[in-house]
Amino acid sequence: MRSRKTDTNPRVPAASEVLIFRGKVLEWFAKNGRRFPWRSNHASNYQRVIAEILLQRTKAETVANFYDHFMRKYPSWEKIAEASEEEVRQFLKPIGLWRRRAASITRLAKAMVERSGRFPRTREEIQLLPNVGQYITNAVLLFCHGEPQPLVDTNMARVLERYFGPRKLADIRYDPYLQDLAKGVVTCDDPVLMNWAILDLGATVCRPSNPLCSTCPISSNCRTATNRE
Questions:
Q1: Which residues pair with 169 in a beta bridge?
Q2: Residue 1 domain-assigned (yes or no)
Q3: Do 140 and 196 lie in a common domain?
């Protein structure tokens, strides 16, 4: 059963509110955004999807310190598929959650080799791949097919909820308000950049505790920051 987080009905924001949010967050990101190898213009779809798998429940800085090492060892789906799950498990130990990650990566790699490295185009087909859930499906649609899909993790959820209003369901994957809001916000000229901007704001400024509201670019319009005053 999906538990409720609050009984308050979420309010759908006006288009003008979303535009203001986008503009301020992107302006902040242009000066303060983090730089990671998977965000390079030269990064391949393989590199970006692998990065998103490694980033789940792990700090981006931890993955960044390990990323080049991983890519040298496994530069393609084929190289992962050739390795045993135990080998990949041992290799992933430095960043934690190695059992779950190794299982996900090796099974997906074998499926991708069978598909000659090409992801399906539809959400339904992508989610039929081994160990691919909502988040990685969105990442594939975003990076590989250019669809404006949100990378909704706890950082993005926190930023959007503090600014626009809280969701109702405890699990961010199933809350229709949050998912629709996130999709609407990243549906813009550059959805990849918009995703990264929100994620970085949540990781560095709009933190879970002790948020830096005094230096936040959106605090003047943020419902949570305004209520704290």
A1: 4
A2: no
A3: no
